[in-house]
Structures are given as C-alpha cells and as structure tokens.
Design goal:
The protein has 138 residues and is an alpha/beta fold. Helix content is 59%, strand content 11%.
Length: 138
C-alpha cells in the first residue's frame, strides 16, 4: 500500500509526459490510498481542462468516474491536528500535509512529484522515479 497525491492520479488519466510513470507506479503497487481531499483537487484540475477546451464535459465526467472507482474504499479522513502539526513543521500547504499525514498514519510512503513535499518530508515522501526504480528521472 502507498499514498499517492492527486497529481499521480491525474497523470494516470490525463495524457502527459508523466502518464507512463504513473502507470508504472500502479503496476508496482496498485493499493493506492488518499485523503478525502483528493476528489476536490482532481475536480479542480478537470474543471481547468474543461474550461480551456482541452477536454469535453463527457471526458471529465468519465475520468472522474474512473478515478473514483479506482480509489473506492481507499479514501481516509485525516485528523486536523496531524495536518496542522505538519504545516507548523514545514512550508507546505495544509492540502499537501493531508497526504503526508495519511502516509504517516498508514505507515506507508507517499508517492509524489511535488518538489516541496519531497524536500520537506524526505522520510515520508518518495518521487515516482525513485519508487519505480527509474533514477534517471525520465
């Protein structure tokens, strides 16, 4: 089991240079866990794609539905005190700290591409490249 941030979920469903790496993460460990916040974050990303005309309404609905099915039963509440303590210890947002707090609570790594999280929480977070053994970063 791993915690993934919303970016990783987005890369899995939105074609990008990192999509292949997100698929490798899923192949290596398909037990992805997330704080409940992930849905709002993904909806926001999809709204931006919709607003820019990159994806149709039907596409964003389909992606949200598929991602929701993938994460069904793997969403967790995170205690506010845990999140706020991490915010106090770092320069990360409360949103980012929800993912770190969940990883700590589950005692599993957080897979992310967020440089600030990787820098601030090196014992909790791991990059997609590092997780999949692709040290070259590509």
């Amino acid at each position: 089991m791993i915690v993934v941030d919303t970016n990783i979920i987005g890369y899995l469903y939105l074609s990008s240079e990192r999509s292949g790496q997100a698929e490798k993460v899923l192949l290596k460990d398909s037990q992805w866990s997330v704080p409940i916040l992930w849905k709002s974050e993904l909806r926001n990303v999809l709204a931006q794609y919709l607003g820019r005309g990159i994806l149709s309404f039907e596409d964003v609905v389909r992606i949200m539905d598929e991602a929701t099915r993938l994460m069904d039963g793997r969403e967790y509440e995170v205690a506010s005190m845990d999140v706020l303590q991490l915010v106090r210890e770092s320069k990360c947002s409360a949103y980012d700290c929800e993912f770190v707090a969940l990883a700590r609570n589950l005692n599993v790594p957080l897979v992310t591409v967020d440089i600030q999280i990787l820098r601030e929480f090196p014992t909790d977070a791991v990059s997609m490249d590092e997780f999949t053994g692709n040290k070259s970063g590509g």
